[in-house]
Amino acid sequence: EEWDFVLVSDIHEMGSEKEIKRKKFLDELSKKGFTIKKIEDTKLFYGVRAPQDIFWKYQCLLTNPDSRQQNSSAQQDVPVTTRIRVVHFILQNTVTSDLEKLHDLMKKKVFEAAFPLHKKEDITEILKKKWARWRVLFKEQPIEEIRRYFGEKVALYFAWLGWYTYLLIFAALAGLATVAAGATVFSSSQVSKEICDANNTIMCPLCDQNCSFWVLSDTCTYAKVTHMIDNEATVVFAIFMAIWATVFLELWKRERATVATSWDLYGWDEEEEELALQLINNPQHEPRRYQHSYFRSTIVLILAVLMIMVLIGIAHALVIYRAVAMALFTQSEVSLLSKHADIIAVMTGAVLHYLTIVIMTKVNWHVALYLSNLEKPRTFSQRENNFTVKIFTFQFFTNFSSLIYIAFFLGRINGHPGHYVRIAGHWRLEECHPSGCITDLFIQMAVIMLLKQTISNIMEYLIPWISHQLRKKKKRPKKRSMMLGEEEEAEDPCKKQWLKNYELNEVNVFSLFNEYLEIVIQYSFTTIFVAAFPLAPLLALINNVIEIHMDAIKMMRLRRRMVPRKAKDIGIWLQVLEAIGTLAVIGNGLVIAITSDFIPVQVYKYMYSPCKRQNHTGMDCSTGYINNSLSVFHIRDFEPHTKVLPEFNGVQIKECRYRDYRNADDYTYTIQFWHIFAARLAFLILFEHVALCVKLIAAWYIPDVPQKVKNQILTEKHINLHNELSITAYSTEV
Fold first, then answer.
1. At 644, which helix (H) or strand (E)?
2. What SS3 class is residue 661?
3. Can you give the pLDDT at residue 304?
4. For this UniProt entry, which segments traverse the membrane (predicted)?
5. Helix (H, G, I), strand (E, B) or coil at 210
């Protein structure tokens, strides 16, 4: 027996309100010609099968890939995915005499669940063997089989994810080459050498109370790591990634066009299908009109801005934590904490940032859903699009606010010795290391990406697996006791199948959305600040290879079957990806211009170095850069409440150095500071214009639709028109 859907209900008392409501709903289905089968176990299970005339109507109303020449075997001609989609729509839109739909009845616990069935078929065995298992980690995905089982929307997601993962190979190789190029100058960089040899350069204390001076050479390893990341190769890699992001999207558009043509989706219209299904369900149905309320949109906009301000406030809280942690660790009596206070503060701050991401993701979800419902969208797709824009915006600020602070504000708004900017008048803001701030951004991104791709993925797999195991254990003993008492019922071949599907984890309408959101946020990490973390594409590649098969296992083995949905493309996610591509150009340009020391080094080489002053050609032109980038501070000018130890290694200290370009007498900015500022601005404008021009050229050079697809569509149109003309000519002659 073939059943389209299964409804599950608790066993209610005869004559109770829930039992009456359930009977009314099932009666409405019976009036529409549905066949209903009841099986009783610890729950009540109702198998539902739609009448054949519903699918005949569907085929008549829509010219789509499911259309077939109507005949007596039309049932076999309708794909299973279409049957499930049509039946699901009718179940969700069937109204009882109490004006209640299935959604309302599930809220009132009349029904517990409604789901299509995973069945033992050839296609399920193929998917389990070639897709939903860890052994086939590096095999090609069976996209056509995925489409036939889960529908076009899921198949397009996996086609897009597979395409993205494939192109990540090139980005990962470029990132590895960048790191390898940096590793070659790990110990040979002139700037690193100067820091490592600066045994006599006394730096200003890192805190205000009982902190001693320190020697610049103490941070030799940190400087080497910084210049392994921050070098000329990083600029080339940033431009490459801007081009890569564009090429990826353009090639995906071509791939999508090929797929959509092979699945005959060009003539399909979502709105037309929705109207057809409404008329099949209720011939007297009147379509809901499009509406727009400026008042409602204004309220949504105000609430969204308030939410964004809250998220930025959380980023400020993380900044405060880092400042306080830095002060406490520096003054700690534990030598490990005091010696590596800056790194420990950065790493604990990154872990705290990850925890805020996990917590705020759930909050953002509920807020975005509430705001989307306020807009009262006409269709589910419209609601999904509105929700996508809001949740991505909130998630972007949740994930990137702290990174934006580290990249563009850390060490630039903290003041200088004798006049520090303080939180609540007490704690100093953090300073950058003398070799630059880019390592802080590198550490933050590395910690967040590693935690997201380990802990989050483990939990994403373990929670459904443990939940499934618990549901099986909970149901089986009761099921056996029922079988002992009711042997005839136990023989029903449907019972075992329905129970097995019921034991699987529940899916909701946003299950696929979660997967998209996870990968799009990862794509943001892979592109926007990739100049500071060239290994991001490699981590994303490793994650995606695992993610594809983990999602497959969840869908095939741990979750109930998703309701198949049709789609011609990945929807609004494409616009989101294009927006991220533009942000990537801006973000990487700002990282190189502001966060990196690339510009100050170049300005020094060509304007202030010995090469410029003395015309030396046989020496490294960055010689003397570190000494030039450190300003002098007289300790007599410390603020009154600052308590520092005036002696260091038995020597009376009168002045110390700090990272900035200020005069030694009045601490105003030097002319070199303004030269560097102008160079940063000029580079940013040049970089972004060049990168955006290259993106536009790449978008123009690579057509969205392959010529083969265009010619195929052209041929089909010509054949259809020719056939119409032949029929018209024949009718005229007759």
1. strand 643-644
2. coil
3. 94
4. 154-183, 233-252, 298-323, 343-371, 391-410, 520-549, 570-594, 677-702
5. strand
